[in-house]
Amino acid sequence: MAFSLSSLSNLFATQTKSALGVDIGTSSIKIVQLRHDKGRVVLETYGAIALGPYAGLEVGRATALPADKIAEALKDVMREANVTTLDAAISIPYASSLVSVITLPASVEKQLAQVMPLEARKYIPVPINEVLLDWFVISGGGKNAAPNDKMEVLLVAIHNDTISKFRSIAESAGVKVAFFEIEVFSAARAALDRGIAPVAVIDMGAATTKFYVVERGVIHESHIISHGSQDLTLAASRALATTVADAEQKKRKFGLTGDQTIAGVPALKQSLELTLAVLFSELARTVTAYEARMNQPLGALVMTGGGATLKGLKEFAQRSIQTELRLADPFAKTQAPAFLEEILKEAGPEFSVAVGLALRRLQENG
Q1: CB neighbours of 67 closer than 8 A, spacing ≥ 6?
Q2: Among 33, 146, 182, 289, which is 20 to 30 Å from 224 by CA?
Q3: Cβ-contact 49, 350 below 8 angstroms
Q4: Three-class DSSP category at 264
Q5: What is the per-residue pLDDT for 195?
Q6: Which residue spans within 95-149 are E strands per DSSP?
Q7: How far is CA 62 from CA 116, 178, 273, 353, in A?
Q8: pTM over 0.70
Q9: What is the DSSP letter of 323?
Q10: Cα separation, 48 vs 305, whole angstroms
């Protein structure tokens, strides 16, 4: 399954360089092509394709496909979306990375190239030569730091095997990768505005839901919750005594407004709410624990990911969590035809990572 906005490339014909964001998830691939035009970011095309069928599974199911199958799906969605650039940025799954904030003496700032590999051994459960390391100072340090001052350094590690797999996917699909980026950074760039107050992002994927706190543009805390949107489909399938494929279709069509009933009981809505109650109960505890530990409230919760597009989800979630909750609207940072505004707003949460990747690539291109 794929959908696209192929006509946009013709509507906005231009000589300026375009950038492609590629978000490879467990259940689907999302792509977004953007370009700069007179100070604006223009949406040229976008598309998504389910990976389930490439693994012999239903649409919406999480997969563990080999690189060649993922590359095949990527080529298919690029063709259907009429992608016109091969200049791409690709996301790395959060589960395939390690992100930690490390506190160090400010006096070692100039020796970080030597210090960080040694410090990383305390956090990474595999040999250092098996991972790609990166880091940057997020607070403290600088020329005015006193001898006893501390600084916070963000450490990022990705296993070499993961990088090799994604390089292989890109090569087979014929795209030129400018950079790889862990998905949470891409989503935060597209879904959040710059602000001082900490904001939590809830990224609801097919197999898991990721929760991370962003403050001053930096991810300070993160958790993975082992519940995702495919759990909703499987629960609906059991409740309605129907196939997984039919349950997925009904979930997307009706969501929490579902009128699919058994013996007069709204079985679809009830099954979705029971499954979501477990997820949001855990999220509520995570929010409460963070606010108590840091002694400050979260400014807002922003929902991203394909699961966040479920009809009625925001209203249901707001009843479980006291903090203001809103859906990500990454396409609001782009220029597109007015008649697509509602469609893009509804689809937005699913494309946060792909938009964030393309935005960074455009920025790098100047």
Answers
A1: 165, 168, 169, 172
A2: 33
A3: no
A4: coil
A5: 67
A6: 97-105, 131-139
A7: 35, 27, 21, 17
A8: yes
A9: S
A10: 12
Q: How many structural domains does the chain have?
A: 1
Q: CA nearest 204: which of 183, 229, 230?
A: 229
pLDDT tens digits, one per residue of 296-322: 899 899 999 999 999 999 999 998 888
Domain range for 103 is 96-160
Q: Which two tokens stand for residue 214?
A: 């962003």
Residues in the chain: 366
All residues at 6 or more sequence positions from 311 whose CB lies less than 8 Å from its CB, including other chains: 254, 255, 256, 257
Tokens of residue 259, six digits: 């009128």
In angstroms, rounded to a whole number, what is the distance separating the alpha carbons of residues 264 and 242?
17
131 within domain boundaries: yes
Determine contact, residues 51/65, Cβ cutoff 8 Å.
yes
Secondary structure class of 153 (helix, strand, coil): strand
Residue 292: alpha-carbon gap to chain centroid: 26
Query: Would you say residue 277 lies in a domain?
Result: no
Phi first, then psi: give them for residue 268, nearest 5 degrees.
-65, -55
> What does the pLDDT look like over 114-142, one tens digit per residue?
999 999 998 888 888 899 998 888 878 77
Alpha helices in the chain (DSSP H): 8-11, 67-80, 112-120, 160-173, 183-191, 229-240, 244-254, 267-294, 313-320, 341-347, 352-365
Whole-Å CA distances, 300 to 201, 261, 356:
9, 35, 19
Q: Which residues contact 196 (CB under 8 A, 6 or more apart)?
A: 215, 216
Query: Which CATH number fits the domain that encloses residue 128?
Result: 3.30.1490.300
Residue 120: inside a domain, yes or no? yes
Segments in 103-192 forming alpha helices (H): 112-120, 160-173, 183-191
Helices then strands, each counted (H, E), the chain: 11, 14
